[in-house]
Write a structure and sequence with these properties.
24 helices; five-stranded mixed beta sheet; single chain; 6% strand; two-stranded antiparallel ribbon; alpha+beta; 696 residues; elongated; 7 strands
Length: 696
Amino acid sequence: MFSNISRTFLPYSLISGCLLVFLLFSLSSSTLSAQVSKRDSLLKLVNQSKALLHKNSKDTLYIHDLTMLAAEYRFHNLDSLLSLSKEGLTISKKADYKNGIIRSYINMGGYYSDTGKIDEAISYFNKAYELACQEKNLNLKVSTLNDLAKEYMYKGDYALSLKKYLEAIEIAEELDYKKLLSIVNENIAHLYLGQKDFDHAMVFFKKAKEINEEIGNPIFMAETMSNLASTYAEMNELEYAMFNINSSIAIFEKERILDWLAYCYEVKGKIYLKKGKNTWALYWYKQSELLHQEIEDDRGEIDLLNGMTQAFLNLKKDSVAEVYALNAFELSKKIGLRTGIKDCTYQLFKIYKNKKEYETSLWYHEIYQVTSESLAKAGNEKALNMLKTKMEYDQQKQQLIIENEKALAKRNIYIYVFIIILIIFAIIVFIIHRNEQTQKKLNLELRSNKSDLEEKQAYLNELNQTKNKLFSIIGHDLRGPIGAFQGLLKLFKEGEMTKDEFLNFVPKLKVDIDSISFTLNNLLSWGQTQMNGSTTRPTTTNLEDIIEENMALLSEIAESKSIKLIKRVEGNCQIWSDPNQVDIIIRNLLSNALKFTPNNGQIIIGAIQKLKTCEIYVKDNGMGMSEETMGKIFRKDSTHTTYGTNDEKGTGLGLSLCKEMVEKNKGKIWVHSALGKGSSFYFTMPRVIEPTKKSA
């Protein structure tokens, strides 16, 4: 069975262990129901888009769905395929939608191909090919080349068919389009099968199989294996044939693909026929026959009818065999399939000879003889043409290679001349450069001294800024809370405040002291980083333990604001980092989130394991930040600070400190935020990757 670029995947279900009649009935009902369900879903999309079409005459989505629906009806309802293709073509032309026009031409070509009108099919495929070339759409170009090649084979022009396939392979290799490469190699194998050249056919089938193994798609593999099974059956390698067809059937039944399943059942019947097991052959032929009631595949049905004729003849049921042979004869004449005419007329010759209707028998034998001689002659011509085409194609490729080599040699001469000129120029530049070295040496020394002075000045300025910032924080952010604490103690000591009144201030004092402690820790850590006194000592660190400790540490603040803390850490999240610095980073981010999240809010802290890093995040639904604020918060020289939802005061150090420590641990930190919608801080740390054991 030939492979197509696009394929209709139709659901199918096999109910094992039942009687044959019940099995066949179940097969028909389940596949048809699921198949109609898929078409209905496409039809629904088309109708939804069509309702809006009068508002927009260039609705490409509607056209796309329409062409997809048309393709869905191939092998199932050719009248619907034709009518939908014509409608798609008309609308695509009005919308000037080139892809829609191309696909509509392809669908119409498929219709005429399946009805045996090969010339009309070639005409539409050529239109699609020419338009794809104009639009430089290589995918559709290579698709139509494959379709054209198949039609030329049906017509008997094997030379032109092979030429189109070879062109398709070149484009597919350029695009690295493995699916198409597999299909074309498989279709070329069918050309050789037409000549009974099984050795060459197997070479191309095996190429297709190797490509499908790279792709890893079980359906593509099953298509190739079913064709391999048919070829092995023709070669009388029946065990190989049975293995391949059983593997294919299992996949098509699982994936529920009706047209290929009908083909597989017919091949399995052929294998049993060659084994001499006619009853089993008919069993599988009957299943294929039942599926053919739901699809329109005349070429496949002719092979099936001829196979059933042979099986009934072997069982001495000539009257039944006659019915199938006559059906095959009529169908072969309808689509002009000479191989089908040859096979069924030979069967009819034997049937009428057994019935002693010698005149009718002789008439069918004459048809058989004429058709056989015509095919034999055409077969020889086809073989010669294929060989000639292949040689011409190889010669053209060789000529192109020679021309490319000449062009390359000519280009190399230019390159050598350019290199010589470049060397001469380099020597001149070197001489000039050497003469300038002495003059530049003094300038460089002066610049170096100036640069050293500027660096020292910048360093002193930075130290001065650090000192000023330290005094500013100590003066404003620490002196205030400590002074307030001293004032309360003085009032209590001098008796101006009762014990109960003093105790009422204890929760507030605890919050202030915690804030002072947190600020001092940040201040010391920041001071160390500024004075180059902080050393990062990475080790294996359990991230979840650090997160839980900080959640417990800050839980009281969260409870005071009725904020819900949520942890979402993937299990066994081990990172390679300095645990003390990671602790400071998480505490700052979590503290900031609590500061800017209103009462009854929610904060999520979690970690996701990536390939080489662990991504930690702290998300809140608080005040959020503007774009301007986000641009300042990580800057080293930033003193930006904002009051929290309950007027909490910060130092402006936390986030710049986080950034420095994240980068010292070879990580990255960033933020996503919007005013009124909350903020999400992210940072990464290297993961601890467990070494894999080498196999012996």
